[in-house]
Structure formats: C-alpha cells, structure tokens
Amino acid sequence: MPIDLKLISQLRDKTGAGLGDCRAALEEAGGDLDLAIEIMRKKGEVKAAKKADRATKEGIIAVAGDAGKLAVVALACETDFVCRTDAFRDAANEFPARLLAASSVEEFKKDADAYIQSELTMKIGENMQIAGAGIYSGPVIGKYIHSTRKIAGIVVLSGGSQETADDIAMQIAAMKPKYLDPQSVPADVIGKETEIYREQLKGENKPEQIWDKIIAGKLNKFYEDNCLTNQVFIKDDSKKISDLLDGNTIVDFALYSL
After folding, report:
1. CB–CB of 144/155 below 8 Å?
2. Which residues are paired to 82 by β-bridges?
3. Under CATH, what is the fold of the domain 5-44?
4. Which of 121-124's residues contact partners 24+ apart within 8 Å by CB, and which partners?
5. Residue 237 and residue 19: Cα distance in Å, rounded?
6. Residues 168, 236: contact at Cβ < 8 Å?
7. 3-state SS, residue 79
8. Whether pLDDT at 24 is above 70
9. What b-and-e string marks burial along 192-230, b requiring 16 or more CB atoms within 10 Å of the CB?
10. What digits encode the pLDDT tens for the residues 184-193?
C-alpha cells in the first residue's frame, strides 16, 4: 500500500531512523504508526540510540519519600512541548520511587538509562536523560521545588522544625550556594580569589598597606554570596541562614537545576 510522506516523517521524528527504514516499517505494519515503531524496536535499539546525541535542555524534577528519607530525580528532555505532556510527566514522577527501591544511586541510573533507551525514547520521541538523582536521609529533610519544576533545593538538618528546613531549601533554590560554610571552601579557591583581589587593588592604585583589610572584606562578601550559612535569608534580610539553625546543623544540602 502507498505510504503517506507525512506518516513517514512522523515515524522518522519519533525514531531518528532513515526514510527508507521508516517506509519499510510502515509498509510492514500496514500504515499503523505504533506497530511500525514496535517492528523497528524489535529489529534493534540502534535507532533509539541516534537520539542520545541530541541536547536535553528541558525537563522536570520529581521527589518521593517519607519523613526520614527522600529521593530526588531530574529527568531531562529536548523540548518544552514534550516536557508538558502527560507521558513525560508520568515517567518522571515514577523515577523517584524506582530510586528508593534501588540498592544504590548508581544501580538506579544504570537501570533508568536502559529503560529510557529501550522504552521511553521510542514512546515519547525525544532524547531523555537522568540529569540528576540523589537520596537524602536524616532527622529533618527540607525541600522546595519551584513551580516550573526545573529547580529544587534540598537540605538535611540535624534537628529543628520542618518550616525552617523548607525555608532553607527555598534559599538554596533561589541563591544557589556553592559551599556550606567558609570552612568548606577549598584553599585553592580562596587563593585564586585573593590573587584576583590583589590584582584589582593594584590596578586601582590603592595603598598597599590597606590591601589586607580590603581583601578580608571582599572575602567576607564572597562567603556571603557563595556559602549557605553566611547568606542573607531571602525572607528576612535582618537574618543569615546560620541564625535560623537554633543550635542545629546542616548535615547535607543539594541544588538541582535543569
């Protein structure tokens, strides 16, 4: 039977295969698109692999867990259109439960990658990848996921209220700290910042005898921008994150972003 070119184009978009392969599969399937995809999958997963080279710049972040344990998975895709489909969102929402059931994050990623290549890529028609995954456990776990589901903050506290933990998670998502506190900043990073500040002061012709004082102030600003405990609280600029802890500690924190 003659195969419509639009149907061939649809199959090519879904599989990444050549025109000849798509035409042959559709002819074998009698023009049934879903059956043609099934036929191509049975002949080998090489077609799906072609999509793995395409950039994944969209996606969503999903979480699952209870009071003492939380799994987070970021699933990326190519386009916002696919990101908004029920099929993609259903797949993304299933992954955190899979992560909780896995023996390790590494095992989960291996199994998830295989599932994506053998099932999801062919079904949904785009390259998809696990862009991030983690399991967090502790006395108090805070989480914040932005309404777009493209950025999330996670924090584990040694104690305190859920409200405080969630506020700190929101801080992480909004201000994107790189380090927990000044003591966590690697020595080579501090050395590089200090070198840059010295060159700036040299170019500004500042008196050398006051350089150390100015550099100390610049480093404090660096810590305030990049260290979670030193950041100004976004909901109350009279406080820093360290002021919210009330004797508790931050055990772990993470930022997920797509």
Report:
1. no
2. none
3. Helicase, Ruva Protein; domain 3 (1.10.8)
4. 121/48, 121/51, 121/52, 122/14, 122/15, 122/37, 122/40, 122/41, 122/47, 122/48, 123/37, 123/87, 124/77, 124/82, 124/85, 124/87, 124/88, 124/91
5. 60
6. no
7. coil
8. yes
9. ebbeebbeebeeeeeeeeeeeebbeebbeebbeebbbbb
10. 999 999 999 9
Q: Is 232 exposed, middle or buried (0-12, 13-18, 19+ CB in 10 A)?
A: middle
DSSP 236: -
Residue range 95-120, pLDDT digits in tens: 999 999 999 999 999 999 999 888 88
Q: Are 124 and 87 in contact (CB under 8 A)?
A: yes
DSSP track, 30-73: TT-HHHHHHHHHHT-THHHHGGGGS---EEEEEEEEETTEEEEE
**Structural domain boundaries of the chain?**
5-44, 52-137, 182-246
CA-to-CA distance for 168 and 253, rounded, in angstroms? 9
How many other C-beta atoms are found inside a 10 Å radius of the C-beta of residue 135?
Answer: 17
Fold that domain 52-137 belongs to in CATH: Tetrahydropterin Synthase; Chain A (3.30.479)
Residue 167 identity: D
